Amino acid sequence: MADSLEWAKGIEGNFAIHQAVSDVLPKGTIIVSAESHGTSSWTKTAKLSVILPVGSPKKYFLKCVKGQGAQALVEGEYNSASAIEAVVPELVPKPAGWGQYHDGESQVHFYIGDFHEMDLIAAPEPEHLMPKIAELHQRGTSLNGMFGFPVPTVLGKFERTVTWEKSWAKAFTRQLKDVIKYDNETNGPWPEYDAACRQLIDLVIPRLLGALQSERHEIKPVLIHGDLWENNVGIDKETGKAIVFDPGSTYAHNEMEFGTWRCSWAYHFNSPIYMKLYQRLIKPSEPMEEWDDRNRLYSIHPYLNDSAGHPGSVSRQL
Fold first, then answer.
1. Residue 158: which of 301, 59, 269, 273 has the closest Cα?
2. Is the peptide bond before 124 cis (omega within 30 degrees of 0)?
3. CB neighbours of residue 303 within 10 Å
4. Contact, 80 vs 160, CB < 8 A?
5. Cα–Cα distance between 81 and 231 in angstroms, integer?
């Protein structure tokens, strides 16, 4: 059992708060209440109501996670949200910190950020969201000019391999190999599937993505949210503006951001208006006529990530 002194006392609500969580907040902050909030497949989440040292009230969002990829999830989300917030303020809830503690049974990793009351059902206004996403891709440039990210990030519950690469084809190949491996671990071998994956890696990726960096063409690595789908976008009920959350960022080809919008589960972002507005601000990379082929290729990554996280999912067959 964990030492009872490690658990914060006198906090209202149904969510136990460890002292390690309090230590991440500004010194002198008083946690008034902690209530379970929201639903998640892999994590437990809560809303914290606090009094800041200056005497003003504030709310924080707390995410706790155990098991596979737990540290990568919270550390990756903190670094992803920090990078996004630095270039497009207010697009993502401001991150406060991350940490870990032992609950008496296992290690718990946690992430804290500003809390926003959000409408998670309404479709984001394309006229507001797409200029912000374009701004993220324009201003969020890789400092070393390479594809990658400083720390591991997680999509769903699977960790994205972190390496710095000059070649986007090589960088994407590593990411695709990750989800192929996770999918095989979850669903077992399938000879025809394995053969198709080898063809993608050996032929399709070098041809389609290699053409982006050639004698005639060039692309720059830019900051992407990394898991931008409907369940990771909400409408702030106070401002009416779209907010993105749960990022698993990387510096990538900007078009990778939209692979999941092609997937069968897309229900807002499959509307052409979103991409039309984005492409008014950022044109498709050259060769422009291969944009749809690249989008189809990029959709394979979220499909396999979904298959790996949900045994028996039809995503593996699409």
1. 301
2. no
3. 23
4. no
5. 16
Say how far apart CA 290 and CA 311 lie, in whole Å: 33
For 236, list phi and psi in degrees, rounded to 5. Answer: -60, 120
Question: What share of residues in the chain are helix, strand, coil (percent, to 5)?
Answer: 40, 20, 40
Q: What is the dihedral of CA 31, 34, 38, 42, to 10 degrees?
A: 90
Per-residue model confidence as pLDDT tens digits over 187-238? 998 999 999 999 999 999 999 999 999 988 999 999 999 999 999 999 999 9
Please choose, from the candidates 111, 102, 215, the residue with its C-alpha nearest in 3D space to the C-alpha of residue 153: 111
Q: Write out pLDDT tens, residues 73-113.
A: 999 999 999 999 999 999 999 999 999 999 999 999 999 99
What is the C-alpha to C-alpha distance for residues 162 and 150, in angstroms, rounded to an integer? 7
Residue indicated by tokens 């991350």: 98
Cα(259)–Cα(300) distance, integer angstroms: 8
Q: Are strands 107-114 and 57-65 parallel, antiparallel or unpaired?
A: antiparallel
